[in-house]
Amino acid sequence: MIPAILDLLLRNRTVLIDLAFDIVQHIPLITRLPGIYEVISYEAELELQDTRGRKAIYRKRQVVRFIQDNIIAYQDTAWGDGDIFAQYRCSPGIEVDRYREGHRYNILISLRSTKSRGDVETLQIERAIRDGFTAAVEEFQVEVDHRTRHFSFSLIIPGRQMPRRVTLIEQKMDKTTSLGSEHKTVLPDGRQRFTWTSERPRLFEAYILRWEW
Fold it and tell me: What is the pTM of this model?
């Protein structure tokens, strides 16, 4: 009986990964391991300010609950093409260090106050990106590196020009979702927002928004 169950799980990758996710989410010792906080809500948004991809703004808003005492700083990460730090803002706190590690940059942010276990804070990052999305097919990636309850990932397209295709890729799951009309909202000024949401994003999963002109 047990070998048959194992064989079924190995044949069905999605079931196996979902089972592992449930185990990680429900074992207290494991859930405390990644990071200094858990994320109650994670909203990631990339706004293209022109269809040539020369100007863009990335915004990240996380409502977090600290799971350790005496926290005075946290870390942001960034990578990509073009000038990815044309402008950088964070709230609360101030950037105190930035260094490259491989293809990524780590940004150390001082909170300017001490947080205790159970404290809730809203962390907001905004980055201006120049010449980062100039190809006919482009993508932007966000990784879930803390236990997260709710996750949304949005792409805002300027004007009324419609991309040929917008997709959301779950890299580790090797799963692609086409973002059609049910994922699209037309904003009052005519811009289009494509949004994908998850109530249980997988820990350490890489989520990629890809669009084609």
Answer: 0.83
